[in-house]
Every structure is written in structure tokens, then in C-alpha cells.
Amino acid sequence: MQETNRTEIATLGEFGLIKHLTKDIQLKNQETRYGVGDDAAVLEFKDKEVLVTTDLLMEGVHFDLVYTPLKHLGYKSAIVNFSDIYAMNGTPKQITVSIALSKRFCIEDLEQFYEGLKLACEVHQVDIVGGDTTSSLTGLAISITCIGEAEKDKVVYRNGAHDTDLICVSGDLGGAYMGLQLLEREKTVFQGEKEVHPDFSGKEYILGRQLKPEARKDIIEKLAEAGIKPTSMMDISDGLSSELMHICSQSNTGCRIYEERIPIDYQTAVMAEELNMNVTTCALNGGEDYELLFTVPLTAHEQISTIEGIRIIGYITRPELGCALITRDNQEFELKAQGWNPLKEK
Amino acid sequence: MQETNRTEIATLGEFGLIKHLTKDIQLKNQETRYGVGDDAAVLEFKDKEVLVTTDLLMEGVHFDLVYTPLKHLGYKSAIVNFSDIYAMNGTPKQITVSIALSKRFCIEDLEQFYEGLKLACEVHQVDIVGGDTTSSLTGLAISITCIGEAEKDKVVYRNGAHDTDLICVSGDLGGAYMGLQLLEREKTVFQGEKEVHPDFSGKEYILGRQLKPEARKDIIEKLAEAGIKPTSMMDISDGLSSELMHICSQSNTGCRIYEERIPIDYQTAVMAEELNMNVTTCALNGGEDYELLFTVPLTAHEQISTIEGIRIIGYITRPELGCALITRDNQEFELKAQGWNPLKEK
Question: What interface predicted TM-score (ipTM) does this complex get?
Fold first, then answer.
């Protein structure tokens, strides 16, 4: 939070604040008929399917303001929702943004949050069309709902994977989790004297993966250009294992993935080594990478292999074969969903 | 919260919990193509306008669990969103429900919350199509987004009021606020010994107005039957004064309303008397009644007068005349937006 300029939110009140934060919003999409300022936003999608996804982020559970700049938080809050729409093979078009905040936040804090939000919306051509701004007794709560569109026959669900389909992922995995571990380790430094700065050189990539993730619009576009419609797809927010098991359970299939094929960045591997963690475990269960996990028919093998940024990591099997990882030394281990679960016993 | 059966949420985890709460949901609307269970819900509205509204409710700010049963809270959380869709002259079709909860809540608590939610959805024929269930370090946070539809030429905004239009409200005002005052007064009793029960006889109506409000679908239907399309409309959540000033400012008009024409229930008046409060002030600024405030052309006077449950309370003027209340003794007082503002200085 900013320390220098501090304007109390009470000076504007709810309606004044909303006006202040949304006054320069220009609507980008013709699907947005009316945005902020009435009881509801008015949208128009003609013959398209309408996609709706929502996320609720709570301070202390989903983010730690000790090391998360509010602008990054705004950016990430929007991105995680866009990612869900891309994971349906759709295009995000609008978001509503609800925030509850306690007295320790000032108008300048919210301006920063909105700056990140607007930047994400700019990059992905999304309109902010409404929301709710209210108070909280304790921390910050952020709820974003994203509305997207897709051609009727283009929507991709989790339940369409078939035996022999290839399992693909975009980008690399485990980086966001390693970034989080690094930030948590250095947290004491952030909280301590201001002159001491942790040395993050050589770790910029994993920090960026945690603090400023991106949604893979580019992958959706490349697949469309190649004329490939995945048979199933979802985004990796909770971890590869967990998501793959969702696809297999909803598609009634099994799967085999190869440890050696899981894409891992150099910085992720170095950080895991430094922390004495198994990097494959991090990539399987880390979460928050917001990469796309999808399946394509075996016949698309050649075509998919030529697309940059996509890696084939295994294949779909009949359900009775279960879900397993094949290790570098050719052993099979049953996959377990050990991904991030905010409701499990700590 | 229930004291008897208590099953910890950790026994189910996030996905188990969502499955448990949503397993018996039957989709009601053909506009809902796919509900809970994927990255996003899939909806289809053909030639209709799509309406989107959202609300974020925080424990201790918007509700007090000392006297609010979780089933009622579920019902109300849904209703306040439906009300916003009706206020656009639309029909609510789907909601997404996000909840963040701390460890003091158990599965039985959430079942009760969902019971109320499902009841509201049953009454208004709305589908629960998604959401997010996560944890909170402190209280309960509820974020609901409602999607509705309307014929293209039927959407009613706040900005369409014209000079000489009649100002109408449905139902009666101030009751929800009086119910809240009563509950707050008796709160100490709730918190005290279990054998002591406050005597609420003769106050059932105002308690119901606070704890179990209704959204005025019936009024929207009656207006449609009569062939009347309001020139402007919104729902009264923050108080009549505040809402009327929104309509006038967005429509660039003034207004005159008559104190003697503001509809007030007998129980509301009695409670105000008991608490030594001015009942007109309560009706003007109380909020949470979720009645509809709308304007119709002067030519609709005769027709609107025959519709039960609608009262004409004044008329729209040119902007330079400002917004004023005409009291019983024929004095003019400028209206002030003193409605509920969660962000103002306490």
C-alpha cells in the first residue's frame, strides 16, 4: 500500500468512489450495450453462446499484500477469470468487479488495483461493466465475474476426451508455485527494515509467474488458426494432476503422462533444487500457472507438434487403466490430486 | 448456526463440497446450456439482451448472523440480485454463487444457506450455474452474480424519466429498516440466555421485510400485462430519496413527491413511534425494501391507478426545480440522499 498520498475513501463515499474509478472507462466491445451505472449491465451476443465464470479472492488466503503490489493483484484478479473463458475455447468480453475493503485502504490503493485491472482489460479487450464496492470489517475481498462468448459449435468442455487422444499443455509448469515459495521465504525481509532488499536476480521469471500471470489467448488463437478444436480443455489453476483427473473423471477415461515431457523452466528447476524440493512434484501439484491443459485427437499429432509453446505430455486411455505418471526410469505412479485446496485441513 | 449436527467442511474439501451442495440442482431454463462443473457456465439467449448484476455481501457489514438464520440469508442474497434484474424490466435466469467461509462454519450451515438460495431460485425460476467456494480468515463473504434477459426494446434504464412523468413505487417503504432496528434492539437477548425469547408478536411483517424480502416479479408482470413500459426504473435498496435522486440526476430532471402519498405499513409506523423516530424519514432513507421505483408518462395515470400494489407518489419536473418532498402541511423540503452508505465515515 502507498504511504505517501493517502485520501480516505469516506471522502468520496460509495457512489463517488465508483464514479472516480470508472469515469475513464471506454467500452471496447459492440456486445456491451450499457456498462457501469444502472441496476444491471446490458449485453448483446446475437447467435453466440454466453460463457460465465466467477472467482472470489480473499486476503490472507489467495494473496498476501506484504509482497503483492495492488496493481499486480488487479491484473491477476482479471487474468484468472479470462483464463477460465479461454479454457472453454471462448473470448472474454466483460467483467464485473466487486470489492470489499477495510479502513486501512485508501483511494490511492484502489486506483492502483484498478490500474492493473484496466491494463489486463486493455490487453485482452475486455469491458468493465459493473460491480459493487463496499466495506469489510477485516481484509480485502475481491469477486470478479467474467462473461465471454463462443461460436455455438466451438465450446470445449472438460468431458470430451477419448481413448488415444493426445494430452497437451501450453507453456511450462511449476513456476508460479516456485515464485510463491521464494516470496514466502523472503517475506521476513519485506516486513523488516526498508533498506534491505532481497536479491531476486536470476529469479525474475518465477516471480512474474506468481505475481503477474498471463492467460493464454495466444494458444487459443493458434489452435483456431490451425483448425484444431480440442476434445477437452481446462486451465491449470490448481495443478496439473488435479486438473487432469478432472478431465479423465468427467470424460470417463484414464491417462498416461510422461515425467520427462512435462515442460519445466530452468529457473523453476533451480529454485526447486535450492529449496530441496522435487521439481516434478512442483510441476504436477503447484498450480496457479494458468496454462492450458487440453486433449486433441491422435490424428492432430503432426500439426500440434509444429505449434510453438505447446507440448504433448501423454495420452488418454480407457478408464480401467487409471491415471498414471510414467517416470524417467519407466515406473508407473498413480496420479493423485494434491493440488491447492483452500478448504482442506491445514 | 446449528449446534447439533456438525460436519467439518474439511471432510469434503472444495470439490466434494461443491458436488454435495449442487448435486440435486435441476436446470430449469432452456437458456442454460451447461451449469456447474466446468471452467465456465454456457448460456444461450438468442435475440434477447443479456443483463448482468452482482452483489458482494460481507458478514458484520451487510448481515449479522446473531439474528439472521442462514436459510434466510441464502434467500435474501439471491433475491437482492433478482430485484436488480426486475428493475431493468428483465427476467432473472441464472446465478453464480461464491462463498468464502471461516472454520466456524460447518457443512450443515452451508446446507441451510443453499436451502434458502434454492428456494429463491425455485420461486423465481432461476438456475444456479456456477460459483466458487473457498475459505476466509475471518467472517463469511457472499458474492452473487445474476444473469437475466429482456426483449431488446423492453429494457428500462434509470435515465429515461421526463418532465411531467408520474413517480410510482410498489408495496410500502421503511419496513425493512424498522425490522432491522427491532432486531438490533433485541440482539442482546439473542446473545444472552437461550430460554429468553424476545416477543415479536405484532411485528412479524417488519421482521419479514428485513429477513426475507421479496423481489417484485409480480409488479413487472402486471405492468407488462397492462402494456405499460416505465420510462425509468430502479429498485429501492438504499432508500427512496437516494434512488429517486439517481433517477433524476441520470435523467436530468427534478421531482416533487408528497409525504402523504408515501406508502407505509401500520407496523412500520408503530415501530417508528415506539423508537421515537420520524416514520417519513425512515421510509425516505431506510433502504432494503427492494420495492420498485419507476416513472410512467402522465397519460398512463388512469391505467396505473387501477393496478394493485402500486402507488403514485409524485411527478417529475424540469431539472432547475430540484428534488423536493412536499410535507403534509404543504412545505417543500429538498431531498437529500441519506441512504445507507457502507463507505461513509461512521
Answer: 0.91
